[in-house]
Structures are given as structure tokens and as C-alpha cells.
Amino acid sequence: MTDATPALDLRERTDDEGRERLARIERTWASPTGFLGWFMPVNHTAIGRRFIVTSFVFFLLSGVLALAMRLQLLVPLNDLLTPDQYNQIMTVHGTAMMFLFAIPAMEGVAIYVAPLMIGARDMAFPRLNAFGYYVYLIGGSAFFLSLFLGMAPAAGWFNYVPLSNKEFAPGYGVDIWTTMITFIEVSALTAAVELIVTIFKLRAPGMSLNRLPIFVWAVLVMSFMMLFAMPSVIVASAMLMMDRLVDTQFFVTEGGGSPLLWQHLFWFFGHPEVYIILVPALGIVTTIIVTFTQRPVFGYTALVLAMVGIGMVSFGLWVHHMYTTGLPLMGRSFFMAASSMIAIPSGVQVYCWIATMWGAKIRFATPMLFVLCFFAVFIAGGLTGVMVASVPFDRQVHDSYFVVAHFHYVLVGGAVFPLMAGLYYWFPKMTGRMMSERLGWWSALLIFLGFNLTFFPMHQLGLEGMPRRVYTYVPEMGWQFLNQLATAGSFVLAAGFGLTLINAIRSVFCGEVAGDNPWNATTLEWATASPPLNSNFPQPPVIDSHTPIWDWQQDDERPVVGGLRDDRRETLVTTLLDARPAMVQVLPGPTPWPFVSAVAASVGFIGLIFSPWFYVVGILAVFATFVLWFWPRHPYREE
Amino acid sequence: MTRKPESHRPPETKDEDSDLILARQEGREALTPWVGWFLAPMAWALHQGGGYAMAPWLCEFQVRWPYHVLTAVVLTMCAAGFGAALHALRRGRKVRPHRSAERLRMMALVGFMLCAAACGGIVVEYAGSFWIELCTGV
């Protein structure tokens, strides 16, 4: 199946037969256009791009909410927002940033980049991929809509009981939170499953596990973590939903339930969630460092080990969010040890990155600049992380602004800076255009300054005793100056993100044409056109090392796979360990059924907020659409 | 196609036997580098989850031996992971083609290091039990 001799890439062939073949492949893999066509594409590039754009829209909206909170806290006893409005905004900001932005953005990047990086033509389950996106879009939109309808949840992004029980949170707010979170997590689970199968089975021949790009390893670890973590929050949300809807007593003390159970279930998901966001970000950082130092990564095995280690240890930390709930010291000591231990794999990664950069001629383009900002911010967040991992210290600063500062340093440092780096890095691949370097530098500078101006004073505010989740404070507390600094910083931060938004929109239309590989990177996504062809690789590549493109440049040859049909969506399935060609799989084409199924599921979930009967309605509707979705048809019938 | 009764089946030849043995051996050897990957998180999770869950019971009955037994069991699991990873590492030096050997060594090394991390975590958690009054707060 693999051509023994180096073959000319179909894109480079100038003869009629080559051009015709390429055109035929592109027609086979094309997505429909027009209004109806919007509901049908299944190609991973289309779905990944949608995930990324939608998640950044939610990021923008959540950012505006953050500005509203900062304005409210600008002066003592401010009445810009009412307490209830503040609680709603705080809850929607936190929930949206975690569930609607951070995870889906990472999923989007993974869905877009990982199949390209492993030389696949598409993902293993393209229609499931599309279904996941529509579920996320509908769930996220419904969640945000609740804010504009004045029905938003107001019990915090962690939604603790008994505050979120029917008695203390009447109305539909908490119901919207529980149903929409469960719904959106279904999308995350579908992404996890398909990413794992794609990475295990659709790699280019020769890409054995020890040649997997670090970013793909990161996506693999993230996907497994999602598989283990998400069910916990789904179960917790479903239980709370039942407590509120049909009067079960899972979290009601008087009925024999336990409010602490909510915290266990929530944080068993909530803490790994931080690392679900962080691990792919580490993969992005490694990829960018390799490209901008133009040398292979130092300590490949150590980096893989560190990511797997982080994934493993992250599931043993959840109790450190509960040190003040009256747990036995024995339990607390276990989790203090584990929480401190996670600094070890994180440190290993930092040393590998330093070693890769050591002595290299680094090119300081915008992606690299964001990576350097990531180092500074994330390490600062990591240091305060070790501090709050310690029981005595945590008991002093628990529920104070110190914790707000800490987790923003970790999450913005660990996820947003790498995401911005990834945006600038892969933008040319996605659009075929470069982003402006000058605007990029200004944006990075403003974001870095604005971020530190906003969140660094919060450490001090916390140490001075300012509690989190308060909508105002009295002037006698003396917190005004630091709050003003933070508010000023938040607007600098917003200006930085605004510059990137302007840069992106401007570059889509009039950015410099990028070419296939503008950064001279070595991973396979840069071995195809920018933006990628419909089929990604008309002839999938065969690889022989960690740095395939640099090897091809040196050898002046590029082995490819032949023998795949042009008239249907065929992709090569390879073995799990050594990626030897095993079989050819026919992937399904564009269809509206994933969208219809997602709408049917939405009817069930959204209806559930108002009546338990919609559970039955939803199941029947989804079942009907699934039958039509899976009805056997071309291309499964052999022609 | 109907399956012939057992007694009517022709006796298996020596070649078929050796093929089967080889296939089993290959299957076992393919799994060996993964043993550390699975045993390490299992051991650590078992120690942490088990220790945490039994804490109220240990304090109520003022006994410690179940915790020591648990620690011994999970450390044995880690040792088994170490052993399997070492075996795979040694085999990695002999395997041809070279490509598979590289992959085998990498998987084995990660398994080995994961076991080391899990072992370290368990020992650190266990060591605390000797100088902390564990039943405080129960």
C-alpha cells in the first residue's frame, strides 16, 4: 500500500491526470455550501474551526461580564449592579469561562490540529464530531440566553448545595445550570471518544507511539482525563436536577442526603478539569518552542511522562478544595501530599523547555512571545498553587481573593496565553493568511501587563481579608486602591484581547498570504496547503521520525501512501502501537442528521428544566433521529 | 458451517501448537510495556481512595493494621509494574526492527517512571501517618 519510491505530491503534479485526480479527491471530500449546507459539514477542519470561533465568542461575552464585575468593585458601596445581578454575572462568567470557553476551545484546537498532525484525512467518527458541536452550540447559547432573560443561575460556577437546593435557589436558574452543563458535557465526551480513536487508529504509517507529536500526546491525555472526569459532574448535575425536579434527597440532609457529596462529585471533576485545560496547552507550548528554536524537543520521553503523570495525579487532588469542610486530618494529609506532588511533573516540563531553548537561536515571533508570557504567569500561579496545597496556609486564605488571584494565574497563564500563542501560530494554517506581527506584539504586551495589573493585587487583597464572591465592600476596609488597580488592569487586558480580535478579522481579509509552512515547522499539519485541502492529504504521508518535514527537506523526498480511492471518503487505518497499515475505512459524508439529533436532544434537555416529562420526549425524539442517522446507505454499500 | 464434535477433530499438529504458543507469547510481550502504565495509577488511586475511605473506621476502632496492609499491597503492585517495565526495557534491546524497539523502550521507560512516581506518592502519604495525629477531625 505504501509507495516504495518517493512519489510526487499530487499538488505538485502539473500533468492533466494529476490535476484531475486531485480535483476528484477534493470534490469527494468537499463540504456543502449555502444556508442548508451550514448544517451538514462533517470534516474535522470545519467542525474544529466552529468550535474555536464559538468558544472565543463565549470568551468575549464572559469577558464583558468580568468587566461589569470589576466596575462594580471599583469603589466601595457601588450600586452599579444589584447583589442578585452580581451573583448571576459571577456565576455565568465562571461557568462560561470553564465550560463554554476553556474546554471547548482546547477541544476545537485538538479537533482541528490533531488529525492533521497525525496525517489523517479526517476523524474516526465525523458525524459524531458534528453532533458534539451542535450540542455545544445549542447548550451554550441557551445557557447565555438565561442571563438576558433574567433567569440565570446565581449559586456560583461550583453550584454548591444547599445554596443551590430548591429551598435557597427557587426559580429556574439552577435548573438551567444543571441541565445545560450535563448537555454540554455530552459534547465533551463525544470529542474525547473520537479524539482517542482517531489518534490510536488513523495515524500516518510509520508514526509509532514514540513518534507521536507532543501536542497529540497532550490531546490523548486530555481525552482520557475527560472520559474519567466528565461523568462525575454529569452524575452530580443529574442528581441535583432530580433533587429539584422530583424531590429526591441526594443532597438534602433532612432526607438522609449529604451536601458534602456534591462537593466530592463536583471537585472530582472540577480539579482534573484544570488539568484537562492545562495539558493540551502544554502541548501547544512545546510545539511552538520546537518550531521557533528550530530544534527537536529535549526530553521527549520525559515530556510524555510528565503529561501522563499530570493526568494521573490530577485525579487525586480534589479534596484540596475541601480542606475547610471538616474532613479528617488523615484525608487532608493524603491530598496535601498529592497536591504538592503535581509540581514535580510540571517542573520536569519546564526544565525540558528550558533545555530545548538553551543556546538556540530563538525567533521571537508573536506565538513565542505569548509562550514566554505563559512561563512567567504560569510559574507564578504554580508557586501559589504549592502554597494553597498546604492545609495550614489554605485554611487562612480559603474563600479569599488570594484564591481568585491564584486560579486566574493558573488558568489564564496555563490556558489563555498558550491558546493565544496557538491562535497566532495556527491562524496561517486555518486561513492561509498571516496575522500582523506588530499588532500581535502590542496585544501580547497589553495582555501581559493588564493581566498582572488585574490579578496580582488580588493576592494582597486576599491576604488583607477580602472575601471572594462579594458584590461590594465598605470603605473602612481599605481595599479601594487595590480594587481600582485591578479594575484599571482589566480594561488594559480587554484592550489587549480587543487588539487580537481586530488583528484576526483584519488578517482574514487582507493578511499576508502564508504559504504552506510559514514558520518552517516540522509537524505534519504544515505538510498540506494553508488552509488545508478538503481531504487534508490527497496522498497521506509516511513518516520515519519526530521531525518529518525537516527530514523531507534534508532528503528531498517524501514517501506517501497510494491506493486509496478518489470517489469515496477512504482513509487508512493503522495499528495502535507501530502505525502499520491495517485496513481502509470509508468515512461518512456530509449530512444534516447530527444537527437534527442535537436539536432533538436539546428539546429534551431544555424541556427538562420545566417538566420531567421532557425526559421521555427527549429520549423518543433522539431515538427517532438516531435511527435515521444510522440508516444504512451509501457509501457503506459497496458499489 | 457446522462445527465438528470435539472427538472428531483431527489432532493438532506440532506446528499449530507452536504457532499458538508463539501468538500467546507475542500477545503477552505486547502487553508487558503497558503493565506499569496501568498498575501505577491503580496502585496510587487504591492507596489514596482506600486510605481516605477507611480513615473514619480506623479511628473508630483504633486500629492501624488495615492501612499498613493496604500500603503493602499497593507497593507490591508498584513493584510488579517495575518488574514488567524492566523486563520490557531489557527486551527492547533485542527486538528487531529497530523502530519497534524504540517504541518498546519508550513505553517501558514511561511505565517504569510512572511506577516510580506512584511509589513515591504512596511512600510520602504513608510516611505522614507516623507523625501526624491522623484521627483529628474524625
TrEMBL record, chain A:
It is found in: Cell membrane. It holds the Pfam family COX1. Pathway: Energy metabolism; oxidative phosphorylation. Coiled coil: none annotated. It is a multi-pass membrane protein. Its EC number is 7.1.1.9. Signal peptide: none annotated. Keywords: Cell membrane, Copper, Electron transport, Heme, Iron, Membrane, Metal-binding, Respiratory chain, Translocase, Transmembrane, Transmembrane helix, Transport. Residues 38-544 form the Cytochrome oxidase subunit I profile domain. The keyword Chloroplast does not apply. PANTHER family: CYTOCHROME BO(3) UBIQUINOL OXIDASE SUBUNIT 1 (PTHR10422:SF35), CYTOCHROME C OXIDASE SUBUNIT 1 (PTHR10422). Belongs to the heme-copper respiratory oxidase family. Cytochrome c oxidase is the component of the respiratory chain that catalyzes the reduction of oxygen to water. Subunits 1-3 form the functional core of the enzyme complex. CO I is the catalytic subunit of the enzyme. Electrons originating in cytochrome c are transferred via the copper A center of subunit 2 and heme A of subunit 1 to the bimetallic center formed by heme A3 and copper B. This is Cytochrome c oxidase subunit 1. It comes from Paracoccus rhizosphaerae.
From TrEMBL, chain B:
Keywords: Membrane, Transmembrane, Transmembrane helix. It comes from the Bacteria. The chain crosses the membrane at residues 30-47, 67-89, 109-132. This is Uncharacterized protein.
